Amino acid sequence: MAQYGGFGGFGGFGGFGGFGGFGGFGGGTNFTGLGGFLGAQDPGGYDPMTTHGLQTTAEGLRHLTEAGATPNDKELPFSSPDTLDGMATWVRGSLYVSEFLAGISAEAQEASCDAPAQVALAFDGKTSLTLHRPKPDLLRKQCAYVTDYGALRAERTAEITSQLGFPTAYFAMLLGLHSAQNARSFELITATQVAAAHTAMIVKGHLAVRRPDQLDARIMPMIPTPGHGSFPSAHATEAYAVLTVLEALVGAWKSLSDGPERLGTLRALAERIAVNRTVAGVHYPIDSWAGAALGRVVGTVVLNRCGVEAEATPMIYAPENRDFFDDDYRDPDKAADAGLKPDGEAFQLEAKQTFSWLWAEALGEAQGV
Amino acid sequence: MFRERPEGQRIDSYTGPYERWIFSEELGRPFAFPAIRSGPSSHITALMEGRGRVESSDTVDVRVPPLWSEAPEITPFAMRDLAEPFGPSIGDTRIARILEALPGARYRLSMPLADATWTGHYDPSARPGGWRPPKRRPKAIIGVIDDAIPFLHRAFRDRDGHSRIAFCWLQAARGAQAAAVPFGRELTNREIDDLHNAHGVREPAAYRAAGAVDRDLPELGTVLAHHASHGAHIMGLAAGNDIRTEAPHLPDDAAIIAVQLPNTIAWDTSGFGKEMMMLSAVEYVFHRARMIAQACDSPELPLVVNFSYGWSANRHDGQSSFERAVESLVSRRKEAQPLTELVMPTGNNFSNRMHAHFGAKDAAEGRHAFGWQVKPNDRTSSYLEIWLPLGFEPDGWRVTVSPPHGVTLSGCGTMEISPDPELTGGDPRRFTELEMPEGNIGQLSADKHQGNRWRVLLALIPTAPSAHISRRAPSGLWTITIDMAGTPLEDGQCLDIWVQRDDDPTQLGTGGQQSYLVDLERPAPPRPLDPPPLRPVRGYGCLNGIGTAPSVFRVAGYVQGSGKPASYSGSASLDVRAEGRALVGLEAPIACAVSDQDAFRPGIPSIGILSGSGARIVGTSAAAALASRRIALNFLRGEAATEGFEHLRSAERDLPLDEAQAYAREGQWRVPHAGPRKPPRAVS
Fold first, then answer.
1. How confident is residue B507, by pLDDT bands cut at 50, 70 and 90?
2. What are phi and psi of B302, to 5 degrees?
3. Contact check, Cβ <8 Å, A154/B201
4. A281-334 pLDDT, tens per residue?
5. Are B215 and A151 inside 8 Å of each other by CB?
6. A148 vs B contacts (CB less than 8 Å)
């Protein structure tokens, strides 16, 4: 991910205002990092002519109101979700990021004689996923998969290059979403993607795993190698986080007569988005395993923050040399064989105000088909 | 230099020029396809020529695949080296030792097998596991031999959702503990249904579970993970019911038998190594068709087999090993069941300058020279074959190979066309190497093929540099001169030259570059849209080199929109005679079928690998598959193969030139084409 990384602005929210012009929220800008939130609904400044005209007009009309007093003494509700609807989208975007990241922590542990280097990711202090750092020998073996998958590049070029950023359009088209009818559903998808992207970067930052082409010159990716670590795959994290949230949303809508088929297709889409990155030559299959597990955690946390009942089962992933398939990921035995196992008691987290508002809004956009 | 092998390390039973080239490290082996280049393998396939039985010995475990023929002229078999099961990779000296252990006869080697494909316990008489005999006798059987067979595709299920595929042999899949095939995996209708029931619409998972996708076996690999394949497209047209095939519906009582060849069947540009797999496939389809008939207490059932594959060079007189074998198979089965056809395409090389036909009058002063343009950056070997007239003895003939301008060979580029007395056993033959300071860059040979027709073969290593190998062939215009003064050709006799196919199938990534012939007298090629002139370098005679057996139903391609032959569609040879007449070769197509919808919609549509996907393929393979489908529909009604086909002309081959040209490219029949339905006419 992060071909067009938006992390430059992350340190200062004030900076978002300068990025007007990305336009239509959910309309396919597809930038990663902050996604459609980047400047969404921020008007920026008017052009110089209009700015000058507004000044001369104000002077010209001022005599009509010169004698009046400031009339309005009604305040907006304090600390209330009722104000959210009136905010620019990018402002809500800041709130989602804040709510999500407020509870996150990551503990990195150096390799010892007993255990490999690992990162344990926790939400509200509850460890939810532990990822072991893959060893160089495993990465070398995984390069063989990456090389093999290269055979699919020619036929997947369009998908791969249009999924450099968030592949929102692919999810939207499977559910028949339109920005005029599903603005909040798109916002929920974007909030989930942004949460997933940030989480993946926290973990990647610790694990610092080289990309396939940095180990094996034969791979020669068809897209630029992203400027961050390989493991876990942020695309897989985002895709599986969105899948987790959309499974719950479609289930709550109870309005799609072919809901099970659509969800089955969504699962296959999440797998395909993850695998496309291996086809492109920028991810190992174990990155997809780790990303899928991380995405499931992120999606479940988002649902919890939305006030939706959903249990997160803590997992540990000690990667084995396996290819990635959604079917295997869902099969507990095969997942265990690949190194992904449950690791503790399931838990739930408390809801947050802005996410809860968003969920309620998205629920109101039920697709009746 | 070629290192002379001591007694016992030479393949004395028969070393054809391709065997010597492919298996010798100092010649073409480093550039052969991975199964040969990489090894190691203790398993290899071969053909035995001549009647008899090939038996196991203390050092060789021999397996003969299921055969329909009781006493075949050519027997395909596979063998395992028991003496050195984990020995070095297959090279010519090791093969010589293996062949030494086999009794008598003469053998032609084919490709090695991955050890993992070897069946644990092979019982050719066993009933294939899980096979569900048909409740009602099928009215016809369609056989499909191809790559990447999508056996789970919805197009091959009947109205009850059961597979119409009775048997499917994946020749390169991992072997079972016990099976009725000697190597690979055989799937039966019930097993295919079980896979479908277990995995539903998740076809990729089902293919993995079936062992049809296995990245550890390069000859199987992950081709079924692609969007489309040749095999899917062809099988959809020949035997599938799907909206994407735009073809008449096939009823449920059209059973299917499929064989998936190894992936690299299309790899080596010589065609070397495939015959055993191909012949095993045809025998298998015939054998299993008889099994279905016997289960229904029926004599042999109507059967059409589609084999959309071929290569460019070869004898083109129906007398190669594979062709003689299929001729015997098809003609004998027709005695038992007249409704039997083996359908093959004419090939796609009409416009590629890959064939030349030189007569006595073309040889000025008893010599004839022609050019061979070898392209740069070719990563595979290139091959050129010169065939002399049947039975002709070229006493005093000499062939000289001159490299492109500015290049000098350090070793011999000239050779007599005569037997080398040192090489006993097998066909009379002679070899020499083309050398440069870095090593051998080519092989020049002459062999009296099957003891009755001389062939000169020129093989060149790639022109692209290879890692760790310093030798490479110079690209450019090579000149081949044949000095025929010793025994001049008589009127009516001619030399036929073919260049082997050397293109680059995308899925294999061979890096091949197609070489072509140059008429040095008239070097300018015709303009693309001009009618092809009948010069010595010509498309006429450029036809599938394994499809010229008399009983094969050859299919050419035509453009639906114009009704004219497709520009690439392979053609029979023409022998131009006096007074503007010409004789069409015996290998003429039987029929033509649509291979392009029109100039701006090349190819025809069919299915992709996964249910619901589609693809479009250009070439006579698709035309052959359409013909197979029509023949199957005729057989289902108990009618002859060409019933309902448009009759273009009689079988008279001596015709005015323009009519002969049309016959050579179209055959006698035109296969009707359904095509997309026209929209209803508006009512005003």
1. low
2. -55, 140
3. no
4. 999 999 999 999 999 999 999 999 999 999 999 999 999 999 999 999 999 999
5. no
6. 215, 221-222
Question: Can you tell me the distance from the alpha carbon of A246 to that of A241, in angstroms, rounded to the nearest whole number?
Answer: 9
CB contact under 8 A, B205 and A325: yes
Q: Are B218 and B203 in contact (CB under 8 A)?
A: no
pLDDT in tens, B119-145: 999 999 999 989 999 999 999 999 999
CB-nearest partner of A155 from B201, B221, B226: B226
Helices (H), A21-163: 48-61, 89-102, 136-149, 153-162
DSSP assignment string, A134-145:
PPHHHHHHHHHH
Three-state DSSP at B43 gives strand
Of A148, A268, A327, the CB nearest to B215: A148
Using the CB atoms, write b or e for B337-360: b if 16+ within 10 Å: bebbbbbbbbbbbbbbbbbbbbbb
pLDDT of B64 higher than 90: yes
What gap in Å lies between CA B25 and CA B440, rounded to an integer?
Answer: 10
Q: How confident is the model at residue B641 (pLDDT cuts 50, 70, 90)?
A: very high
Q: What is the pLDDT of residues B250-299, one digit of tens each?
A: 999 999 999 999 977 555 566 677 889 999 999 999 999 999 999 999 99
Nearest CA of chain A to the CA of B202: how many Å? Answer: 9
Q: Identify the residue with better confidence: B561 or B425.
A: B561
Interface test with B, best of A143, A155, A275, A279 (most B CBs within 10 A): A155
Task: Examine the predicted complex and report whether its ipTM is higher than 0.90.
Answer: no
pLDDT tens-digit series, residues B519-549: 988 766 666 666 556 788 899 999 999 999 9
In Å, how far is A267's CA from the nearest CA of chain B? 11
Sequence-distant (≥ 6) Cβ neighbours of residue B300 within 8 angstroms: B289, B290, B293, B333, B336, B337, B340
> Which of these, B625, B518, B626, B501, lies nearest to B568 by C-alpha position?
B501
CA distance A223 to chain B (A): 20
**By CA distance, what is B223's nearest residue in A?**
A151
Question: Is the pTM value of this prediction over 0.90?
Answer: no
Task: Answer whether B226 sits within 8 Å of A152, measured CB to CB.
Answer: yes
Chain A residues with CB-CB distance to B205 below 8 A = 325, 327
Residue B205 to residue A154, Cβ atoms within 8 A: no
Residue among B268, B241, B275 at smallest CA distance from B110 = B275
∠B163-B164-B169 over CA atoms, to 5°?
85
Instruction: Report the Cα B189 to chain-centroid distance in Å.
Output: 28
Angle between helix axes A234-253 and A285-305 (nearest 10 degrees) is 40
Q: pLDDT tens for residues A327-363?
A: 999 999 999 999 999 999 999 999 999 999 999 999 9
Judging contacts by C-beta atoms under 8 Å, the chain A residues touching residue B222 are 148-149, 151
Q: Give SS3 for A189.
A: helix
Closest CA to A2 of A282, A270, A267, A191: A282
Q: Quick one: three-class SS letters along B333-373?
A: HHHHCCCEEEEEECCCCCCCCCEEEEEHHHCECCEEEEEEE
Residue with tokens 């086809």: A279
* Cis geometry, peptide bond prior to residue B40 (ω within 30 degrees of 0): yes
Question: B353: left (phi > 0), else alpha (psi -120 to 50), else beta?
Answer: left
Choose the weakest-confidence range: A59-63, B437-441, B457-461. A59-63
3-state secondary structure of B443: strand
For B594-659, give the DSSP string: EEESBTTB-SEEEE-SSTT-EEEE-SHHHHHHHHHHHHHHHHHTT--TTTTPEE---S--EEEHHH
Instruction: Check residue B540 and report its DSSP letter.
Output: B
Q: How many CA atoms lie within 13 A of A26 on its CB side?
A: 20
